[in-house]
Amino acid sequence: MVTLIVVLLILITVSISLVVGVTTYNHFQDFIIRINEAEESIDAVLRKRFDLLNKSISIIKNNTKEDKVLEIIGKLKSKKLTNYELDRQLYEAINEFNSYKEKYDKLKTCEAYLKIDINLFESESEIVALRKYYNDIITDYNKLVRNCPSNFVAILKKYKVKPYFDGNEVDVEHTDFNL
Question: So what's the pLDDT on residue 41?
């Protein structure tokens, strides 16, 4: 009778542990899918911004006396960059793009240039929203990696704390991950 109770308790404990483990694993998988989707969306917007800036080169050259226009864009084609690095480089190129508008009045009336300017402005709101969405998912994912009992699944599956979109690592020693 006592052995039957012990066996039942062991079975119940193992069953509960198994259910918690599978549920936690599925929760991780949900976050991984959402992170990948957010990264793909960010990639698409960054590609769109790159293409817009690339198209603007000939427009700027045709409407100004500048020979070297947005050289950073040409250099980006041959580099392998993370989204964080690409985003920073594109911001530099956008600042240069905007400086031409200030220097040359002819660009202020060029329809093609203005269309690119509007599209770049619209892409800015997209990237800000996607960055926030991505960072929110990363915060929740990192909580799951660091908190008990989900950290046992993280250790088993070798899931690590992920950096935010700005490229900074999460300082787990000084971050409060209370749910």
Answer: 95
| Inter-CA distances, 92 with 3, 33, 84, 96, Å | 72, 31, 13, 6
CA-to-CA dists, residue 106 to 7, 59, 136, 137, 168, angstroms: 85, 11, 42, 44, 41
Domains and CATH numbers, the chain: 21-157 (1.20.1440)
Structure tokens at 118: 């509007």
Is the model more confident about 11 or about 175? 11
DSSP 99-113: HHHHH-HHHHT-HHH
Model pTM score: 0.80
CA gap 44, 167 in Å, rounded: 18
**CA separation for the pair 177, 144 (Å, rounded):** 9
Q: What is the pLDDT of residues 49-68, one digit of tens each?
A: 999 999 999 999 888 888 88
Contacts within 8 Å (CB) and 24+ apart, 88-94: 90/46, 90/49, 90/50, 90/53, 93/53, 94/49, 94/53, 94/120
Averaged over 100-129, what is the pLDDT?
92
Q: Tell me, what amino acid is at 82?
A: T
